[in-house]
Design goal:
mainly beta, 4% helix, 8 strands, 5-stranded antiparallel beta sheet, 41% strand
């Protein structure tokens, strides 16, 4: 298990637990509305697009691009390693997720950069999805 670079770990709820547990299986899990087919993230009990309560958990392919980002240079808590990158990732399926970019220098991260999901286990039942630069083909 790895430590968070900042703050406390998420606390899974009955609604969000499948998302946090997905990393144990290498899956980035997201809800999809059975009625209107929109992806729903953050985890919810109803679809914000059509208000249906019919949501299913599906696996994202985990590929996307950096939509926007910022580099944190001032540690929010003592012992936090800086700099680190916080980014909004636009996933290929058309939904967005706030996460961190890892496995590269903060100065190398740019808007439009292709990324892929990976997971850091931070406690027994939580695998934090983070993103790293996608391998060039």
């Amino acid at each position: 298990m790895s430590a968070l670079p900042y703050g406390l770990p998420p606390r899974p709820t009955p609604v969000s637990a499948p998302h946090w547990a997905g990393g144990a299986h290498g899956e980035l899990r997201v809800q999809k509305c059975d009625h209107c087919s929109h992806y729903v993230f953050n985890p919810a009990t109803t679809c914000p697009f059509c208000l249906s309560g019919e949501l299913s958990w599906v696996s994202s392919n985990g590929r996307g691009v950096v939509h926007t980002m910022t580099t944190v240079h001032r540690a929010p808590t003592p012992g936090t390693d800086t700099p680190y990158v916080v980014a909004v990732i636009e996933l290929e399926e058309g939904w967005y997720m706030l996460s961190n970019i890892v496995d590269c220098d903060a100065g190398d991260v740019a808007i439009g950069m292709p990324v892929t999901a990976t997971f850091h286990q931070i406690c027994d039942d939580v695998w934090l999805p983070v993103f790293r630069p996608a391998e060039r083909s």
